[in-house]
Amino acid sequence: MGTGPVVRNALRDDVMAICRFGEVHVRAHYAPLIGEEAAARQIRMWWHETNIAGAVARGAVVVADDGGHLAGVGQRGLDGDDHVIYKLYAHPRHRGSGLGVRLLDALIGQLPEGAERVYVEHFAANERAGAFYEREGFTVDRIEPTSAGDVVWRVRELR
C-alpha cells in the first residue's frame, strides 16, 4: 500500500486504544515539557474513557489507523461558540511524515459549513507544536497562564 496510516473518524471500538495512546505517548511527550505531575494530570483530565467516549459519540475524534494500531489522534470541540482543536498527536515514529497535517485537515473538514475560524491550544513549552501550527497558518491569539505553564491559543481564519 505505501500510503501510511488511514485517517478516519474514530469508532466506539477505538476508545480504549485512544486512552492508551494518551497514557503512553502524550504523557511521555509532556513530562519533559511541563513536569511529570502536570503531564499525569493532563492524562487524568482529558484522556479518560468518559471524555473520549463522549467525544467519539459526538463524531469529534479522528484517528490515524496503521493496520489496527493507532498512529495518531485528533479531537475537536467547542469553547462557547468557538471551534477548537483540543488534541492533535502523531505517534513519535510518524512525526514529520505529514500525518499531523492529515489529522488537522480531517478535523477542519468536519467543521460546519460557514465556520469562519478554528482555534488550537498548546503549552508554550511545546515549541514543536507551535512551529507546526504556525506552518499551518495559525497565529497567536492569546496566552493564558496555568499551573502547568502558559497555554498558547492560536487561531486560523478559514475564509
What is the number of strand segments? 7
* Structure annotation, total helices: 5
Global geometry: globular
Largest sheet: 7 strands, mixed
Point out poorly predicted stretches.
Answer: none
Description of the molecule:
The protein has five helices and seven strands, in the order E-H-H-H-E-E-E-H-E-H-E-E. The model has no long low-confidence stretch (mean pLDDT about 95). With about 160 residues, the protein is α+β, with helices and mostly antiparallel strands. The protein starts with 5 loop residues before the first strand and ends with a strand.
List keywords for this structure.
159 residues; alpha+beta; 7-stranded mixed sheet; 5 helices; 7 strands; 38% helix; globular
What does the secondary structure layout of this molecule look like, with pairings?
Elements: E1 6-9, H1 15-34, H2 36-46, H3 49-57, E2 61-66, E3 69-79, E4 82-90, H4 99-109, E5 117-123, H5 127-135, E6 139-144, E7 151-157
Helix pairs in contact: 1-2, 1-3
In short:
This protein has 159 residues and is α+β, with helices and mostly antiparallel strands. The chain has helices spanning 15-34, 36-46, 49-57, 99-109, 127-135; strands at 6-9, 61-66, 69-79, 82-90, 117-123, 139-144, 151-157. It has a 7-stranded mixed β-sheet with strand order 1-2-3-4-5-7-6, sandwiched between helices.
